[in-house]
């Protein structure tokens, strides 16, 4: 096999593993966490490669990127949903309740097209609230 073909094949495998790791993660992992998990499957993978693959998967619509505390987190759920973020333990939970029909309608009446909606709720999760 030619070097370039071998490289291409390796890239495909790396991409498939990174994608699978995000699919199996329900905690909205950071790139570093995805890297730690991908390494179990593919010990030779580098953080740089994981980062590059994640940045490819987002515009391809395969995963979503959300920014929490200025940090990228990755989400296997690609349909629009909102997030609750615990300020103490950092837990990120999906919020599925539809929230903003009124606001959307107002904007759409003006002729705007809404492509993306994401609310972030910051506070304390039940466990951290109980410790307070
Ligand atoms: Zn918490
Ligand atoms: Zn989510």
Offer a concise description of the structure.
The chain has 132 residues and is an alpha+beta fold. It has helices spanning 3-23, 31-41, 47-57, 101-109, 126-131, and strands spanning 64-68, 71-75, 82-86, 92-95, 120-123.
Q: How would you describe this protein?
A:
Helix content is 44%, strand content 17%. The protein has two domains: 1-78, Arc Repressor Mutant, subunit A (Orthogonal Bundle); 81-132, Ferric-uptake regulator, C-terminal dimerisarion domain (Dna Ligase, domain 1), CATH 3.30.1490. The strands form two sheets. A three-stranded mixed beta sheet has the order 4-3-5, with no helix packed on it. By secondary structure, the protein is α+β, with helices and mostly antiparallel strands. The termini are far apart. Strand 3 and strand 4 form a beta hairpin. Helix 1 crosses helix 2 and helix 2 (31-41) packs across helix 3 (47-57). It has five helices and five strands, in the order H-H-H-E-E-E-E-H-E-H. Residues 28, 75, 77, 81, 83, 94 line the site of one zinc ion (ZN). One zinc ion binds at residues 86, 88-89, 91, 124-125, 127-128.
